[in-house]
Write a structure and sequence with these properties.
It is built from 13 helices and 31 strands. By secondary structure, it is α+β, with helices and mostly antiparallel strands. Strand 18 and strand 19 form a beta hairpin. The longest helix is centred in the first third of the chain and has 42 residues, at 12-53.
Length: 698
């Protein structure tokens, strides 16, 4: 038997070629029991993890996640990672023994390889820290290259150089079993075997043990990426399992090829005929590889712990008031207003908004904008502009209210639209709300309409108007009543909804006193209306005012506006429901009107207090009962409350997301499919700034 000379080069391509021929010559079939046992151990760890997670889990984008890291979960993660790494290491060593037997034409069974691995377990455990110490040049040179240049590529180059200098040390692992030596002797032996070709051997080990298995895993993940969320999660698990099994084979075969390059004949592997694996073994491997996806699919379908299942995607990296809109036809759209720079309209490319595009940017629009969906799939957007295109407060230019119809393809030029209403330039907190029912568009405003009205202590005018068509140049004024002038920069002090037969109902909150006024029309033409101060004026002490200011400043730090806002909906019984943030406590509060004119109401507190808490948002579910999305500062979660009765005395809660730091605005709508969609602004773990998340209940 002619043997290879010690100093003969073993290139990376030669190593990969021999590894491939080794796989074709029966290694996969011989190592199938080892791979099967290794993957079965992984399944056991995952099953234990599901039991540890229990009812504290949720499913986000098809992935099982936890709300937080409890001590039990942290302990499980630490123990499981250690056990799975040890199992992977042991499986690779067993494959090394099987591959070496094939290379030396002395076949070894999987059982014998496993027993040899167990027998040398202590020595293998001892060689790990020695090999890790020898591999230190990789992170040292990589971090050094990055820190010296603050660029990624020098760090990558440093890692490659470190790998070429130190990957030879990995050969100590197979030598512990193949030559039956201790950890120190194995490392010394690896040093002597790679003499005169250390860099070449390091490169061969790097390619066969790290690069190729990593490329296989990355390629499989890339193929699974375009799939839908549940299919993507299942495909990823099948891909990960297949890649893990293949990685064990490649790593074990690669280490055996490089370690035995000076022993096995040059022609033995080349002349060996391919021995196809038995069909039973191939079927077993296929079943084992597909098992994670099947088990995961079954877990999602059976839902043993009644997990909350949501689809969550970042729509944009936004700070500011974000309004969620859902056209009757098509995908959701997000309207994001920017202080002093207008608003952006982002159109989602699908129902779950996995991707979106900027449909339009409309400049020269003040902070307060509102929108509603029209039956034809377009959106009616109402906003304030100054008489000139210049942004800013001008004594020469009044505030002008304009309405435009936007689509996913863009918005028309707002300054070219006719003026719906003219207000005083001193209306710093001019508000607007818009609602649509069929082709009917109703808009409500709260602003001083003249310079006289805008004086200190003067009242604003709450005006409800109906537009016959768009653009709305000549609206019908349905009702006009005085209300306290809003002096703050609250997010949304005015809300509008349409009740039975299209009758308008408006709710307005005075930010100084907490007075909440409801204007209710008797019919769509508002031939009779009633104005009710539903929540009376309150006088706050100095300490209470200081507490209110603290909460407002904390909330405005993330949204450029005070966190106070009001929402109104009208259920099928025509008795309005109003949600708002209590000025003093910050708690989400709901009012259920006792009659259609809302002359009185029952109050329900929906969540714990919190000074930095944003106002709740309100919508009607497919059953006609209120749905409320709130923040819960006690556990830093976004919570959806589903009322089980019109007054929300009985309700179910679902934590649909978690955040860190101070949350931003939140909005809620229900699609034609009956599923609630929540747009919330917050900072999630690992992020450095707030982002707008669109979360859909599945």
């Amino acid at each position: 038997m002619t043997t290879r000379d010690l100093t003969s080069p073993e290139g990376v391509l030669t190593t990969l070629g021999r590894t491939w021929r080794l796989l074709r010559s029966g290694l996969a079939g011989a190592a199938a029991p080892v791979i099967g046992c290794y993957l079965a151990f992984q399944f056991l760890c995952i099953a234990v993890g599901v039991m540890v997670l229990g009812g504290d889990g949720r499913v986000v984008n098809g992935e099982i996640r936890t709300y937080g890291l409890s001590h039990g979960i942290l302990l499980y993660v630490a123990v499981t990672l250690t056990a799975m790494l040890a199992a992977h290491f042991a499986a690779v060593v067993a494959v090394v023994v099987i591959a070496a037997g094939l290379l030396l034409e002395r076949p070894v069974t999987a059982g014998s390889a496993a027993r040899a691995t167990v027998r040398r377990a202590l020595a293998l455990a001892g060689v790990i820290p020695l090999v890790g110490f020898a591999l230190l040049p990789i992170p040292l040179l990589g971090s050094g290259g990055f820190l010296l240049t603050l660029r990624v590529w020098p760090g990558v180059l440093g890692c490659v150089i470190g790998a070429l200098l130190s990957c030879w040390a990995m050969l100590a692992v197979p030598l512990v079993v193949l030559e039956d030596v201790g950890p120190v002797q194995a490392l010394t032996r690896a040093w002597s075997l790679t003499r005169h070709r250390r860099a070449r051997c390091s490169w061969s080990v790097l390619g066969s043990v790290v690069v190729v298995p990593g490329a296989v895993a990355a390629g499989g993940w890339a193929l699974a990426w375009p799939l839908a969320e549940d299919a993507h999660a299942i495909a990823v698990r099948v891909t990960v399992t297949a890649a893990d099994a293949l990685a064990v084979l490649l790593q074990g075969a690669g280490l055996a090829v490089v370690a035995l390059s000076q022993w096995y004949p040059d022609v033995a592997v080349k002349r060996e005929r391919r021995r196809p694996a038995p069909r039973r073994t191939a079927a077993l491997l296929t079943l084992v590889i597909a098992a994670p996806g099947l088990i995961y699919w079954a877990a999602l379908r059976t839902d043993p712990y009644d997990w909350i299942m949501v689809s969550d995607h970042v729509v944009e990296h936004a700070v500011g008031r974000d309004v969620l809109l859902l056209p009757e036809h098509g995908a959701p759209a997000v309207l994001a207003s920017r202080r002093d720079t207008g608003f952006d309209l982002r159109a989602c490319d699908g129902p779950t908004c996995q991707s979106s595009h900027l449909a339009a940017h409309v400049p020269y629009v003040e902070d307060r904008v509102d929108a509603a969906a029209l039956p034809n799939g377009s959106l009616v957007v109402a906003g304030w502009q100054y008489g000139g295109r210049r942004v800013g407060k001008s004594r020469e230019q009044p505030l002008l209210l304009r309405l435009i119809a936007c689509t996913a393809r863009g918005c028309p030029d707002m300054p070219a639209a006719p003026t719906t209403l003219r207000a005083s330039w001193r209306g710093l907190a001019a508000s607007v709300a818009v609602a649509a029912s069929g082709s009917q568009v109703v808009v409500a405003v709260a602003a001083p309409l003249s310079e006289k009205d805008a004086g200190d202590g003067a009242a604003s005018t709450l005006r409800v108007m109906r537009c016959a068509d768009l653009p709305c140049g000549d609206p019908d004024v349905l009702v006009s009543v005085p209300v306290p002038q809003a002096t703050g920069v609250a997010d949304k002090p005015l809300a509008l909804a349409l009740g039975r037969a299209g009758r308008p109902v408006a709710a307005y909150e005075d930010l100084d006193s907490g007075e909440l006024t409801v204007v209710s029309c008797a019919d769509a033409s508002c031939r009779r209306s009633r104005t009710t101060p539903l929540v009376p004026r309150r006088s706050f002490t100095i300490e209470q005012n200081d507490a209110i200011d603290v909460g407002r400043q904390a909330g405005s730090a993330v949204s450029n506006a005070y966190p106070d806002a009001v929402e109104v909906v009208v259920p099928g019984d025509d008795r309005p429901v109003i949600a708002y943030r209590d000025l003093l406590t910050g708690a989400a509060t709901m009012l259920r009107c006792r009659d259609r004119d809302c002359t009185s109401a029952d109050t329900s507190v929906l969540g714990p207090p919190g000074r930095a808490q944003q106002a709740p948002t309100l919508a009607l579910g497919p059953d006609g009962l209120p749905l409320v999305a709130v923040h819960d500062l006690t556990d830093a979660s976004v919570t959806l409350i589903a009322c089980r009765d019109p007054a929300c005395a009985r309700r179910d809660k679902a934590r649909i997301g978690t955040y860190t730091h101070i949350p931003g605005p939140i909005d809620l709508t229900v699609g034609r499919d009956g599923l609630p969609r929540i747009l919330w602004v917050g900072r999630t773990a690992g992020r450095t700034r707030n982002e707008a998340h669109l979360t859909e209940m599945m």
